[in-house]
Design brief:
alpha/beta; six-stranded parallel β-sheet; 39% helix; binds adenosine-5'-diphosphate; binds magnesium ion
Amino acid sequence: QESVAIETLTDGFHLLIDALKLNEINTIYNVPGIPITDLGRYAQGEGIRVLSFRHEQHAGYAAGAAGFLTKKPGVCMTVSAPGFLNGLTALANATTNCWPMILISGSSEREVVDLMQGDYEEMDQLAIAKPLCKAAYRILHAEDIGIGVARAIRAAVTGRPGGVYLDIPGSLLGQTMDAIEGQKSLVKVIDPAPSQLPAPDAVARAIDVLKGAKKPLIILGKGAAYAQADDVVRELVEKSGIPYLPMSMAKGLLPDNHPQSSSAARSLVLKESDVVLMVGARLNWLLSHGKGKQWGEPHSKKFIQIDIEPKEMDSNVEIAAPLVGDIQSCAQALIDAMGSDWKKPPTDWTGAVRAKVEGNIEKMASRLQGNATPMNYHSALGVVKKVFEDRPDTILVNEGANTLDFARSIVDMSKPRKRLDVGTWGVMGIGMGSAIAAAVETGCPVVAVEGDSAFGFCGMEVETICRYNLPICVVIFNNNGIYRGDDENRSGGDDPATTVFVKDSRYEKMMEAFGGVGVYATSPDDLKRAIFEAIDSRKPTLINAIIDEAAGKESGNIGSLNPQSVVAQA
Ligand code: ADP
Ligand code: MG
C-alpha cells in the first residue's frame, strides 16, 4: 500500500470549518462535548469566534437571535441526543419566528443507531429534527461537506427564513481526503436569498384596495425588521401618510415617536380601520387572528398582505390583496405604483388617531414618574424609557409576563432591530441567549429587562456573559414570583404557592460570583444610576430591581388565554 503524506490531506473537521468560513459564517454558539469538542477547538484555531455556553438551549437562542439581527444563519453546535434536544427547542423557536439558524449536532454512528444497538447518546436525531424545522440534512462523507453546508445555508435564508438541522456523525469528522480535492469540493452559496418580485397585477390590486380606504392602517412586523429594508419601509409609510402600528420587534423600524405611529392608539386603529396593509407580520394570536371584538367585528375590513411565504395568505381571514415577494421589492413596487399624485388618508381619520395617541401618551407620562420604594412596573420602566432615549444605540432584550407587557408599551425604540423579545411563541428563557448574541453580533451595549421568573430559565449564562466580558446589563424585575409574589398555597399546606419564589432573593450575587458587577436597587433613582453606569462602563452587570410583589397581574395581558375551571369556581 502506498502511504500518503499527511500534509496533502484534509479531514472532516477542517472541511466543515472551511465550508463555514467560505460562506462568511464567523461565529458559532457552542456547547462542547463528544463528538464535537475538537471541532470547536479547531474552529477557534481557524479564526471562527466560538462562544461556549452552559446549556445548549441558550446557545441555540443566541444563534436564532443572531439570524434575526444579521440576515445570515446563526450557527449553534451541540453534542448528541440530550444536547441535540436542548438545541432543538431553540431551532424550533427560530423556525416559528422565521429566523435563519443552523443547528449542527454531532451524532452516533448510523450502523449502531439504525440497528438500535444502544450507543453512547444514541438517537435518530435527523428523524426527530425533521418535523420541527424547515429542513434537515445529514452528511455521511467528507466529500459531501461542501454541498451539505451550502444546502443548509440556502435552506435557512431563502424564501421564508427558518431553522435547519445538520447531522454530523462523529466518524465524519475524522474522515480524510486529498486536501486539494477537498478545497474543490467546497461550495460558496451565491445569492442565498434572491429578491422575489411581486407580480404586477398583484401590485395593481393592492393599490386599488388601498385607494378605496377611508381609514387605512399599516402593520409592521418583525419580518419587516428582519428584511433590513429600513429606508423603503419608511418611505412607504411616509409617502402613504397612513398611520402604522409596529409589532413588538418591529418597534424602532421607524422611531416610536414618529408622528404616524399609532402604538398608543392600538385598540382604536385595530377596531376602526377599514383597510389594513400587513408588512412582514402574521395574523396569528398576537393579532387575535384578524377577527373578533378587537377588530371591531362584525366588520368588512380588507387586508393587503406583503409576505415572502405564499401559504401565509388566508391563514386566518381572507386576504383581499396578497402581495407575495420580499419586503424591499414589494414596498418599492407599492411606492412606485402610488405615483406622484397619491392622496393621503382623510384627515378626520389621521387626526382622530393622533388625538388618541397624544391623549394616551400624556396619561401614561404621569404614571412613569415617582421615586417610591418598592418600585412598581411603571416607575421602574419610566427609568428604562429614559435610558433608551439617552442611549439609542443600546439593544433592549425583554421577557417576562408583566415585565414584557409593560416594557413593550412604555419603552420607545428609535432605531431598527434594537428590540429582541419572546417572539411568536411568547417563550420564556430567551433573555440571556438573545443578549449574548446581540452584544456579540453588534458590539452595542445590551440591557436585558427580565422578569425574575423568565431569568430563572437562563440565569446560569451570566457566567458566559462574564467569561466573554460582554457589555450586558441584566435588570431583573424581582417581584418574588411568577405574575405576582404574594400568592398563597390554596390548600393551606406548608409548601409555598405554585407561583412564588424565595422572597428577597439576591440575584445580583450571581453576577458577583463570576466577577461581574451586582447592584441591589430599591428605588427608580438607584436603578437609573446603575443602568447608565453599566452601559457606559460596558461591564457585565446584574441589577436586582425590587418591584412591589402585589404589582403584577396573572399572565400579564394574556390572562384570557388561561382555561377556566367551572368546577373549582362553583
Ligand atoms: P410579528 O410577530 O412581528 O407580527 P411574524 O413573525 O408573525 O411578525 O411575521 C413575519 C412574517 O414576515 C412572516 O410571515 C415571514 O414569512 C415574513 N418575512 C420574513 N422575511 C421576509 C422578507 N424578507 N420579505 C417578506 N416577508 C418576510
Ligand atoms: Mg416575577
